Amino acid sequence: MYIILAILIFGLLILVHEFGHFIAAKLLGVQVNEFALCMGPALWQHTWGETKYSLRLIPIGGYCAMEGEDEESANPRAFTSKPVWVRAVILVAGVFMNFLTGLLILAILLSTSAGFYSPVITDFADGCPYEGEDALQVGDEILSVDGERVYIYSDLSLLWERNSSGVYDMVVRRNGEKVKLDDFRFVKVEYEDEGETVLRYGLNFGNIIPKTFRNVLNMAWRNALDFIRLTRMGLMDLISGLVSINEMSGPVGIVSVISETGRQSESTRIAISNITYLAAFLAVDLAFMNLLPIPALDGGRLFLLLVTALIEKITRKKINPKYEGYIHAAGMVVLLGFMAFITFKDILKLFGR
């Protein structure tokens, strides 16, 4: 059941993304030749008006094929016949729809909470060495750690754990003013807890933000920004070599994670809630990844659109869109090859190899 639910989530996110392109193109007068969910051979297709709608075999991706998107066209309603701002809006519409979907899911989930923890220090453990005039104080709201903003309470443990040196640059809000704590030595120390020795920082956070309509929307926005940062950090860790490419997952791996999340949850209700939270993360993650300036992705198309527009403005000569099409086609081949590699690796993981 959870595997089916995971596949449906992927399909829905792809549908929402492509619908963003589709509705923007329709509203801005661009002819849409085909609106497809998934890739490969068509399983079903039907033409309404000027647009062919299809469901294809391979459950990865989808597309909104517009007239003149990657080739010359004399049609006044072709994509390339429209002003740059129109084309830019159409390109970012899919990203916008995915981000909006993630935001709405988060708002719905957070609306069921009684309140939200905030990164405001309400107390210190007995003997905590980090309380003082030149250190932390009760009422301090931790705003950033090592230059990374604290969006939500759980960011604190994430940002503290990422720095293995134990020395941080923190910014707190104290009595309405920002206070910098540079080169602040901050490591876990031993405390007695019910007869056991535990390691902790010794800070207590008991301040609760009440649930109001405004606070729900604000926390949804902060969670979405936090998702983007997590993805950015993951990419930077991959580029820097802190994590291996073997730790990456494609659609198969993500479906497996969603399924495992559902199975390990205490009840069906909790499972649905956890999976829905993952769906929100995937929606925001898909929006962010699609904005990267990589050929074949929306960000790559937007980047080349702006570069082409600048060159045409300087040279006063129109560039044949087929050349941009070649770049995106090459990017798509590389992207599909990479996806195939990740998918094959995920399948091997499923069989324990």
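That was protein one. Protein two is written in the same sequence-then-structure order:
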Amino acid sequence: MVVVSPNLRVLRAAAACLVAASGALGAQAPLPSAKPPAAVGPAPAYVAHRVTRGKSFTDFEAMLRDVSNADVIHLGEQHDDRGTHALQLAVLEGLARRGVKVVVSLEMIERDVQALLDRYLAGEIPESTFVADSRPWNNYTDDYRPLVEFAKTKGWPVVASNIPRPLASAVSRNGLAVFDTLNATSRGWAAAENQCSTDTKYGRKFTALMGGMGTHGDAAMPAAAMDRFYAAQCVKDEAMAESIARALDAHPDAVIVHAAGGFHVEESLGTVERVTRRVKDKQTQRRDVKQVVVMFRPVEDLDTVKAGEHRDLGQYVVYVHR
């Protein structure tokens, strides 16, 4: 039996999305339609989980009390885990109970539909219009809509933080030079600054994981193709980091809660280190930004979880019973 790590599984899914995205840069690649909007039902009363901090076990409320003092909370997820999404909503609810002002930032909504999202949150358009025109992920209704709707009830902003998929796909085929061919509007959907060398800890980690796609009889990915593929990953992190940095300035009294695939934020790499770079380079008004990574890891058996086993992934690791 071949065991595929969650990270490799996530990156393989990302690879499929990038390869599938096609067409002119001004167009959007079709995706499976989201389910029709439905009333938000109550979240599960309890999702079995265990929380670790460093080498010790802690509890969810203690975690919330601690992270409520951060400037940015990164929620690293496995996209297809329902328990994780329920606990992400619980994070928002816990912050609201503590009177914390929040800006919700989502990898799953892309920057070119921000105006549409803002109109929906303001009540200017119906949800059906927003869903029809915003290219939601096919699990939006079940997994991400509750986050958006909770933010809407609280009057919290929601940031569409990711680069449009066709742009990331174009980078995977042609490299960063594709940005030089775009008009000003399309170029604005990507981050202004993109530092995408593979000679970094994050780049080497990505390359090592993606190298696993060339096993079991498949040809290894050529180095040039790997560089372009990493660049496609990188421009997502750069766009999300720039979006978070802008939100920090636009909402100086709020905590930014950013939900994204775990690989984007674990070990405080990817998006997290790119936010840090922008703060250090004085691209934000805030000079002292505290970021916290909360990683959600689905497991089959909570009783075998060992405190500290994955402590490098984030300040907190939440093991979720699948």
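The CA atoms of residues 255 and 264 lie 19 Å apart. Keep this in mind for the problem set.
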